[in-house]
Structure formats: structure tokens, C-alpha cells
Amino acid sequence: GLGQWFRRTTNSIVADFCGRCRQLRQITQASSRGAKPAAYLNLLADLMHNFTDGLALGVSFGKGHGLSTTLAVFFHEVPHNIADFAILIKNGFSRSAALKAQWISAVGCFLGCLAGLKLQDMSGISGFVAGGFIYIATVDIVPLMLQEPGVGLPMLFEVAAMALGVGMNVAMLHLEHSVPGACAH
């Protein structure tokens, strides 16, 4: 039944994760001698971040918001992964090892997507995922913006970029509602 499926799925995910960790260790030991602990911490955070992105994608496709969520994740992942790559290089990884490590951490997105597809019928899962993104914005992004002295051109660009992001999401929401059958609710 459901209990056996959950146990098998959990065991499979844990085994796959442990296998990926071993692969990551082998890759990084071979080509990034002297890598700093911050690099490994960043990889773990990236894996967890990718899992939540995948969770958002999996849940949203079940709710009829797949297109807008995919675009939002894509536009946020490109600069995020470039920054993660730079962090790995700065902390002792070779370019090759950093690229391989980034690919391995991307497995988290696939695992999150599978979990999201399975959990999409649970009430509150969409709210949990949205709450995670709101938390990141309010705890990580806004304080960084407020640290910069003055209200100059950089802050204006940041606020404009945030407004553009909100506007794009609203436009996608209207687009999904205007296409017959695109929105499941």
C-alpha cells in the first residue's frame, strides 16, 4: 500500500543521495584539493535550494501554473548558478570540478519535482512552497538592499527589477487564465 510505497521511495531517494554524495566527494577530492569548507556548505545549500525549486515545479504543474513557475525558476536560476559557480571557484574548486559539482547538485531539483508531483494533492503544499520563497525574499534579499547607504540609482534598479518580476508573474497568471484548459482550478 501507501506505506510500502513511501518506504521504498524514501529508501531509493536516500540511496541515490548517498551515491551522489560519494560521487561528489570523489570528484572534488580528485580535482579540488584544498577546497574550503564554504564551498561544500554552498553545495549542500544549493542542493536543498534545487529541491525546493523542483518541489515548486512539481506542485505547480499539478495546479495549472506550470508555465509561470517554470519561467520564474529559470530566470532566477541562471544568475544563481553563475554565482554558485563563482563561489566554488573562489573557494578552491577547479572549473571542471565546480561544473561537475553543480550538475550533481541539480539532482535536487529532479527529486523535488518528483516529490511535488506526488504531494500536489496535499492541501497547503503550495502555501508551504510559496512561503519558502517569501521567506528567502524577506530574510535574504531585502536586508541586503537596505544595507547599501543612500537611495541611489542601484536601489532604484533593484526595486524596478522586483517590480518587473511581479509584473511578469501577473502577466503569466492572466495568460494562463486566458488559455482554455491551461489552468486546472
From TrEMBL:
GO MF terms here are: zinc ion transmembrane transporter activity
Q: Please cite one Gene Ontology biological process associated with this protein.
A: intracellular zinc ion homeostasis
Keyword check for Transport: no
Q: Which residues cross the membrane?
A: 125-146, 153-175
Membrane topology according to the record: Multi-pass membrane protein
**Pfam families on file:** Zip
- Which protein is depicted? Uncharacterized protein
* Entry keywords, A to Z: Membrane, Transmembrane, Transmembrane helix
Q: Where in the cell is it found?
A: Membrane
Q: What GO CC annotations are associated with the protein?
A: membrane
